[in-house]
Amino acid sequence: MTELRERWPKGGDWQQVPTTPELRAQAISVSIWQSGPLRVISALERADYPDASGEAGPQWHISITRNGNRPKPTDLRRALRAFRMVGTEIDNHHPGNAQHFWLPVDPKRRVDCECKVDEVQVVEPDGYIWSNPHEPAECRGCAAAQLFGRPCTLHPIQEKQPQ
Question: How far is CA 48 from CA 79, 93, 120, in A?
Fold first, then answer.
């Protein structure tokens, strides 16, 4: 039996680049790949299944960026083919520069993520879609703003009015 691990690219000119201790600590197995302007983090992670069962299990996850920015549709198609993730669901749970794709290892668990129904689907001006809880105190855009210093697209910082 082959050891279960993250997906490695097939074909093309993908070069593996070093991972970080932080990435290795978050996944069962993980690798980073570069091909031209594309960078893909490929991981096998234990994550909540998308069926709202509350159960978790192994899932393949790839995140794709282009020069550290959001990838173009042609980039996504190329990376999805290389990592054998064609037909998987795009599932961004926060704003950012990467597009995220998930695939449960168990075929019976492969359903659309409950966040598509249970959460607000935020569409940014460039078409990037991410899901956010209905509760404003749990806003992932505000959390990302604190981490990355970019304003939340849902709750921009209000400038104080002079008194």
Answer: 24, 13, 19
Residue 80 in domain? yes
The tens place of each residue's pLDDT in the chain, 163 residues long, gives 456 999 999 987 999 999 999 989 989 999 999 999 999 999 999 999 988 888 999 999 999 999 999 999 999 999 999 999 998 988 898 888 999 999 999 999 988 888 778 888 888 888 888 988 888 788 998 888 888 788 888 887 654 445 5
pTM: 0.85
Residues 6+ apart with CB under 8 A from 132: 94, 119, 120, 122, 138, 139, 140, 141, 154
Q: How many domains does the chain have?
A: 1
CATH number of the domain bearing residue 77: 3.40.1720
